[in-house]
Amino acid sequence: MVETIKGTIDRIIYHNSDNLYTIADVDVNDILITIVGYFENLKPGIEIEADGEYINHIKYGEQFKVEKLEIVIPTDTDSIYNYLKSGMVGGIGPKKAKEIVDHFGDKTLEILEKDPMRLSEVKGIGKKTALLVGLEYKNQGNMRDIVLKLSKYNIKPNYAKKLYDEYKGDTLNIIQTNPYALIDDVYGIGFKRADQIAMSVGIEMESPYRIISGIKYTLSSCYRDGNTYILKDELEEKVAKILGVNKDIISHNLANLFLDDSVILEVTEDEERCFLKELYECEIESAKNLMGLISYNEKDSEEIDFDKLIKKYEEINEINLDKTQKEAVISAIKSKVSIITGGPGTGKTTIINAIIYILGSIGEKYTLTAPTGRAAKRMSESTKSEAKTIHRLLEYEYTLEDDHFLSFGKNEDNTIDSDYIIIDEMSMVDISLFDAFLKAVKNKTSLLFVGDIDQLPSVGAGNVLSDLISSEIFPVTKLDTIYRQDKESLIITNAHRINKGKMPILKKEADDFYFINTITQEKIKRNILNIVYNYKNTPLKRYDLLKDFQIISPLKKGLAGVSELNKSVQDILNPAHNTKNEIQHGSTTFRENDKVMQIKNNYQIKWTDINTLKKGEGVFNGDMGIIKKIDKEKQTLEIIFDDEKRVIYPKEQMEELNLSYAITVHKSQGSEFKAIIIPIFSGYSGFLNRNLLYTAVTRAKEMVILIGEVNGLKSMIKSVQKNKRKTTLAERLHDFL
Ligand SMILES: Nc1ncnc2c1ncn2[C@@H]1O[C@H](COP(=O)(O)OP(=O)(O)OP(=O)(O)O)[C@@H](O)[C@H]1O
């Protein structure tokens, strides 16, 4: 039965600022009643009136479940003072509250609402503060109103708050006319969520907003799978299925998108392709710029005495480059654009070092770069020369004004000053970054792309390294002699075996490659947890499990997927303790000393180098760090990334973080760890393939432990992910030949 209670908030027992779930005690005529519901900004001392029902909670007893809550605007000066001093209106604390109420008496709230500038009559309040307080007061009233109205459309308060923050007074109007606008405007709202809202608001199934949004959503999911285009027929079918409408309606709306150029249709002899405009342009521009580069002028390398320089390099480094390696060095220096690909331990780094030695000797200015922070760091260490991430090399900037726009300081008008640029880990470079990079390359500059073609392709769209090789336009050296191969070390031997489709060798005496045979995800998980728990009695004993060790799982979900493993391993490696602060975020508990990973690029977040105190911006997808401190009051996390960058995460940014005791293979690309555990599963045909296993195994420097099913291992090794991505870079390069 719905009842109404009226009283004063006595204390807030719990408040989750994420979803606004709140538990509070309310003093109703001297009796404390516990209310639960979703509220923004309740403070002790505030008077409320709430409609709801009494429920019996198994653990907490009787509670009042609130359906509707209104803050009673006080009228007498004491109540107004209590209301203001509670901090309800940002910018006014207890002292100011008293001064304001003393000055305006029972007219205070009227002044706040209608003529806030008069607040500056109070000593110590300037015009600016008066304006800000007035705006805040107005904002709160509007927000309460809108949050309430949105709840009718089943929009929870946490979303309602995000919407209000974005649209303010226009919120209702936008929700009722085109909720699909939310997808672009409000972080965290995707097509599915917007569509649910649209349906509850009563938007027509066949509304053009809905169809067009569905088309764009489907195109972007094809882009997320790595393709740069999708066949028209396939697109129409997919959209029709997702939206539950007739395919003809999709064709009709798609035609309009072709007309305004936001989707590009390309008809070839055998295909009708649909592209998102940006990706279409990226592939064409990249091809044009790259071909422009090689046509600019041939390099004059006649004068270089390669034999002498290579010999010298060999003497200094006490190494003899083999024939292929020497040819790779010479070809790389002679060519405007060239490629070196090879698996682990085949000499890629050795060749890069030889090349930069020669470039240094002949006085050419070279630049080293790699797609991720970790890969760039490794490149710096192995070459003893500075290597930057491609983003940093391009001097990325992120502007808030222009709709969260990422731009690069280095571009066609301000090119990179270098004679020779080497990109390592090229398999991770996607078409958008490649396009931005090529725009910033001078005509005189030569390029060398180094990578391992058998690794998983880039997370973003495109298949750049593979397309460059298959175009057969640039000199390519494929390294296949394995040099780093200690007698008893099996990691590299086995990585190459896996890559060739053979089962790994499992020798008793080898102490760096283990396979623990077990079936079912439950047992796999139990085995992993056992090893972590008893690691002092296992071969992992020589490692620091926070720094040197990584669990790399092919799956996100499931018992032995990343999410579950993270929770369980956290309990073992960093259990709760009264000396360690914690913060709850969604279903994740972040605790001091936890290992975490940034899961999306954030170009703006500020960091301070803990050694040099240098300041900078940007933490990127895949960066890992440790939570050093949690400020429970301010609800912030202090994280140190890569032992050097200190970053403070406010509550709303925590959705960009995951625990990272376990990470996916995709997130592990470009990183290396001393010891890793990989769970091996059966099933998921196609997804669990050879490249995935190969990429995971090659992340380990000293020890690999595979745990799972032999049949799963066999089928992964058998399953080859043949270049399934739909991309056109190779074709475009030929168009410009
Ligand atoms: N021609 C050679 N003769 C002897 N040793 C070599 C030769 N080429 C490379 N090596 C050695 O093999 C090891 C692996 O080489 P390098 O690190 O260059 O390979 P890589 O392809 O970069 O491997 P990874 O991708 O695993 O880092 C190094 O210790 C290197 O000194």
Please specify the SSE layout and strand pairing.
Elements lengths: L2 E13 L5 E8 L2 E8 L8 E11 L3 E11 L5 H9 L8 H11 L3 H7 L12 H25 L5 H11 L3 H7 L3 H5 L5 H11 L6 H17 L4 E3 H12 L3 H13 L3 E5 L4 E5 H20 L9 H12 L5 H12 L2 E6 L5 H14 L4 E5 L2 H11 L3 E3 H4 L2 E4 L5 E4 L11 E4 L7 H9 L6 E6 L12 H7 L5 E4 L11 H9 L13 E5 L3 H13 L15 E5 L8 H12 L8 E4 L2 E4 L3 E4 L3 E8 L5 E5 L4 E8 L4 E6 L3 E6 L6 E3 L2 E3 H4 L4 E8 L9 H8 L2 E9 L1 H9 L10 H7 L2
Parallel strand pairs: 3-5, 9-15, 9-16, 10-11, 10-14, 14-15, 17-30, 18-28, 18-29, 29-30
Antiparallel strand pairs: 1-2, 1-4, 2-3, 4-5, 6-8, 7-8, 12-13, 19-20, 21-24, 21-27, 22-23, 22-26, 24-25, 25-26
Adenosine-5'-triphosphate binds next to helix 15.
Family: Belongs to the RecD family. RecD2 subfamily.
Keywords: ATP-binding, DNA-binding, Helicase, Hydrolase, Isomerase, Nucleotide-binding
InterPro entries: AAA+_ATPase, Coronavir_polyprotein_1ab, P-loop_NTPase, RecD2, RecD2-like_HHH, RecD2_N_OB, RecD2_SH13, RuvA_2-like
Describe the protein in words.
It is a single chain. By secondary structure, this protein is α/β, with parallel strands linked by helices. The protein folds into five domains: 3-145, OB fold (Dihydrolipoamide Acetyltransferase, E2P) (Beta Barrel), CATH 2.40.50; 153-201, no CATH class; 208-267, no CATH class; 285-483, Rossmann fold (3-Layer(aba) Sandwich); 490-718, Rossmann fold (3-Layer(aba) Sandwich), CATH 3.40.50. It has 26 helices and 30 strands. The protein has a seven-stranded antiparallel β-sheet with strand order 23-22-26-25-24-21-27. Strand 24 (624-631) and strand 25 (636-641) form a beta hairpin. It starts with a strand and ends with a helix. The structure holds adenosine-5'-triphosphate (ATP). Adenosine-5'-triphosphate binds at residues 319-322, 325, 342, 344-350, 483-484.
